[in-house]
Write a structure and sequence with these properties.
The chain has 937 residues and is an alpha+beta fold. The chain has 29 helices and 29 strands. The strands form ten sheets. A five-stranded antiparallel β-sheet has the order 16-12-11-18-17, with no helix packed on it. Helix 5 packs across helix 7 (131-147), helix 10 packs across helix 18 and helix 17 runs antiparallel to helix 18 (438-464). The radius of gyration is 34 Å and the shape is globular. The two termini are 66 Å apart.
């Protein structure tokens, strides 16, 4: 029974509760209480005392049931009333329908009461015995709304607050220890009050740590956010009355989930690349494709990937046609998902129609103006005639029995796929429970997450065709960010900032279009600044929803106007309405400020922390289990939250990063070839040798072989010369197993031993056997990560450098292993080489043209223009440092790197040798404050 209850609790999302807490909750679940009541009751015996509980348990249980019933009624009343208020606020945006705008003595008339009746009927059955009572209460609350000068929404009632009030009135107890029936624990910290630099009293954010909040990524993010907001409060840049708008970039998941998300995105990206290649190739040869064979050609091309093996022209369409190209790719993807037919009519769609776009439309399964759902799951490739004349603005469930039967038949393969994916999820879930090792368990969990994401995609596509009515809650999910991190964040910030709104990334994207800002340029970080400005402009929810609804109605009307010219008048009316709404929301006055933002006007203040050398704490374990602390009676000791206290903690430093690459290398002794291309010898006539490193390169195509030969990478020069001749004589071919065959003698080649680049390090010594050659006794790998780069300088301005990789750092025996302690203060005392800087990836620098260039005299704009971030650096022998401008978001490209800095040009990437490292370094010469201000030391 305990195991079953644990599964129920975890299935409902209560996995943050300890086993100790679950056992207490189980007692009340077994007595027939529902989960919410059981969680509230579980801790009461402890906080009021077992004797008091035993004498009053029947009273408390009865009162809990009564409170729960009353709270459910109150929540329903608040929900219905707030829906009516939202509808009224949208009506007030239109002059034709607005009423009682400033009339605080307004009395509800018959039409208002009819609206109340309809709103209650949507949530309750008319025959429900509570119907009349709920309707009367809603009318009463709705009437109070009109008398309220603020015209504010009603705050919902909390079940926990009602219970706390009952316990405080009847018992002497500490109600803060109650288990929370919500997934989100409430923040109860008392803000610190100070007088800021402007002489204003403000409240500062407290500790974001909660008992239930375990994710380290979430906690780090919240600590960083606290530091920024507290700094801005202290400096007077914001106040507690400031409006905060939240849009989180992503969910913070565990390692396995992050792997699954990355893998899922890689699969989707690979599919998109293949689709783009196919579309480009089809467009290139478009006039040569026979219409009758379109489906066979496309299916064969995609499944066999034959069109993806060659080098194709990616610039078939001009930049002017890039939007059309994206639309064609989207059409092609939907076409393939729908098995090359229209879901509504069952008509086969030819590839020619997909490319032309006149006879097929990308339509929203649930109309966009009603559902606000612009996701891929809500898009369908549809016959244009059916879409414009029959479906129009209706739901699939409203199209009649004949069409609905056709839809059911066409989405049946999707249902089978959903069933298949669901079975896969259950299979991998079962595998994870039976796993014998952590590696097997992680492997199973990752696969389970991967299949779940695919399952959710197809399950959502199917559900869009079966929805009978678009509920307000469905629309709310499309417009609101309801993820756990956002909910924690809102609860945390609301203690100090009462005015908070949360926006979904889809809403931000929609308002980019509404405001008129072009598509994002993701090569630089300007779009983040624009998105932040757009977020600050998004109006309150009632006005936001109305603006989006009118905008989507305009888009739908533009599609229908091709077949119904009489809709021109409606389109003009909608455009006027949208223009008015934008004026009311002040979206037309601030647009120029957003568009005028240039790359050099922003500073990217990345607050990431280098955690290469990190202090870690781990609980003492024995045979994989935590050893708990016990008292003199040998009973397990628990803290105030019921968690087991470990016997002791292990603390120490760990290294985060890649010590070395996964490929092993061999070492060979090779004669030194001089510039005259002759073997070098010493004075005694002995051949001079050097140690070179080799690895086995796979050779699958003729082009791979040519690249290795042209780069002079083969370790066996005789074999290289022989193969070069065979290529010239066209005596080499590739068989069906991707194996190179030399025709003259039938020699098969799958791998070739090739020289590798620099950065190879010895990892360990062979113990099984010993060779007379020392270099043969070591295992070599390529260096993983260069962690730190120290610059030493003497009084003459000459420089030397020292580079440490993670593998070397791991071998250094030092108690206080910090980046400064890893390098000596002096490299060469005789020549006065003193340590000046210790650089690491992510360090920001302000560039100088030469050593005499004075940065102190520059203004802030010039400093921002010269601000670069160190991306990586080479080993000590090479000594080069790679930098990219702080506004650039794309990956560093060696081809685009320039070897010298020039203040006149906006250079994205720079690579500097140790002799040309002319810059000021953050943390030594200057600091960047949390608000982006550059402070020279």
């Amino acid at each position: 029974m305990l195991k079953l209850m644990n599964l129920i609790l975890k299935a409902d999302g209560y996995t943050h509760l300890s086993t100790y807490a679950i056992k207490k909750i189980n007692k009340f679940l077994c007595q027939g209480f529902i989960l919410d009541k059981a969680i509230l009751l579980a801790k009461i015996p402890d906080i009021i005392g077992n004797d008091v509980w035993h004498n009053n348990k029947n009273l408390i249980k009865k009162e809990i049931s009564s409170i729960y019933t009353q709270v459910e009624k109150k929540r329903l009343v608040v929900k219905i009333t707030n829906n009516l208020i939202a509808s009224y606020k949208q009506l007030c945006l239109d002059d034709e329908t607005a009423f009682a705008v400033h009339d605080y003595d307004y009395i509800l008339d018959n039409s208002d009461k009819q609206d109340v009746y309809s709103a209650v009927a949507q949530c309750l059955n008319i025959e429900d015995e509570r119907f009349s009572e709920i309707r009367n209460q809603v009318e009463e609350r709705y009437q109070l709304f009109f008398k309220d000068k603020k015209r504010a929404y009603i705050k919902p009632t909390s079940l926990r607050d009602e219970l706390i009030e009952f316990l405080n009135n009847n018992f002497d107890c500490d109600t803060t220890k109650l288990y929370n029936h919500s997934l989100i624990e409430k923040y109860t910290y008392k803000p610190l009050e100070i007088i800021n630099q402007q002489g204003v009293r403000v409240q500062l954010l407290g500790n974001p740590q909660l008992h239930n909040l375990k994710n380290p990524v979430v906690l780090r993010t919240m600590y960083k956010l606290r530091n920024i907001l507290n700094y801005m409060l202290e400096s007077g840049q914001i106040s507690n009355d400031s409006r905060l708008v939240i849009e989180t970039a992503k969910e913070f998941n565990d390692t396995n989930m992050r792997w699954a998300i990355k893998r899922y995105e890689d699969i989707r990206e690979n599919e998109n690349v293949q689709l783009e290649k196919i579309v480009n190739n089809i467009l290139k040869e478009y006039n040569k494709i026979a219409t009758n064979n379109d489906i066979k050609i496309a299916r064969y091309a995609y499944e066999q990937s034959l069109l993806c093996n060659g080098d194709y022209n990616y610039d078939v369409l001009t930049k002017k046609d890039s939007d059309r190209k994206k639309e064609i790719i989207e059409r092609y993807k939907l076409w393939k998902e729908q098995n090359f037919k229209c879901i509504y009519t069952g008509r086969i769609i030819s590839l020619t129609e997909v490319l032309n776009g006149d006879t097929v439309d990308i339509e929203h399964t649930l109309p966009l103006s009603k559902s606000m759902d612009n996701s891929d799951e809500n898009k369908t490739l549809c016959d244009a005639t059916f879409n414009r004349f029959t479906k129009k603005n209706m739901l699939p469930s409203q199209l009649g029995d004949k069409i609905r039967n056709e839809i059911d038949q066409n989405i049946e393969p999707w249902r089978k796929r959903v069933k298949f994916l669901y079975d896969k999820i259950q299979y991998w879930k079962s595998r994870s429970r039976k796993a014998a090792s952590k590696e097997d368990k992680d492997f199973a969990i990752r696969n389970m997450h991967l299949y779940r994401m695919e399952y959710e995609h197809w399950e959502n596509k199917v559900s869009r065709f079966t929805i009978e009515k678009i509920e307000p809650s469905f629309v709310h999910r499309q417009l609101s960010d309801t993820r756990t991190i956002t909910r924690y964040l809102v609860e945390y910030l609301r203690v100090v900032f009462p005015n908070i709104s949360v926006q979904n990334s889809n809403v931000t994207s929609a308002f980019r279009e509404i405001i008129g800002i072009k598509e994002k340029n993701r090569e630089n970080n300007l779009h983040h600044a624009q998105d932040a400005a757009i977020l600050s402009l998004i109006p309150p929810s009632y006005m936001r929803d109305r603006i989006m609804q009118v905008y989507y109605e305009i888009k739908e009307t533009k599609k229908l106007i091709k077949t119904e010219p009489n809709l021109n008048h409606r389109l003009e009316k909608l455009n006027r309405k949208l223009l008015k709404l934008k004026r009311l929301a002040h979206l037309d006055t601030d647009i120029n400020n957003i568009l005028d933002v240039k790359v050099n006007d922003i500073i990217v203040n990345n607050l990431s922390t280098n955690r290469v050398l990190n202090i870690t704490r781990r609980k003492y374990r024995k045979n994989g289990k935590v050893v708990s602390l016990r008292n003199e009676n040998n009973n397990v000791v628990r803290d105030q939250n019921g968690n087991i206290i470990p016997y002791r903690w292990h603390q120490g430093r760990c290294i985060r990063g890649k010590l070395c690459q996964e490929t092993f290398y061999g070492a060979i002794k090779s004669p030194i070839i001089g510039k005259d291309k002759k073997i070098q010898k010493d004075a005694q006539g002995n051949i001079q040798y050097e140690i070179k490193y080799v690895k086995r390169e796979s050779v699958n195509t003729l082009s791979d072989l040519k690249k290795l030969i042209d780069g002079n990478k083969l370790a066996d020069k005789k074999l290289q010369s022989y193969l070069q001749k065979q290529i010239a004589n066209k005596n080499i071919r590739v068989d069906s197993d991707n194996c190179i065959i030399v025709n003259n003698n039938g020699l098969k080649i799958r791998h070739l031993r090739c020289y590798t680049g620099n950065g190879v390090i010895p990892i360990k010594e062979h113990k099984d056997y010993a060779s007379k050659y020392k270099y043969k006794n070591l295992t070599y790998c390529e260096n993983g990560t260069n962690a730190y780069y120290a610059i030493y300088e003497n009084n003459k301005g000459k420089r030397k450098c020292e580079v440490l990789n993670l593998y070397t750092i791991s071998k250094i025996e030092m108690i206080d292993k910090t980046k400064d302690n890893l390098f000596p203060l002096y490299m060469d005392k005789k020549n006065d080489y003193i340590r000046k800087y210790v650089l690491e990836p992510g360090t920001r620098v302000i560039m100088q043209e030469d050593t005499n260039d004075c940065i102190r005299s520059l203004d802030r704009d010039d400093m921002i223009k010269r601000l670069y971030i160190i991306n990586n650096f080479r080993d000590k022998k090479d000594g080069r440092v790679f930098l990219k401008h702080h506004t650039i978001s794309k990956t560093l490209s060696n081809k685009e790197c320039l070897s010298q800095y020039n203040t006149n040009d906006h250079i994205a990437f720079i690579v500097l040798s140790r002799e040309n490292l002319n810059f000021w370094v953050e943390g030594y010469d200057f600091d960047i404050l949390p608000d982006g201000e550059i402070k020279i030391r």
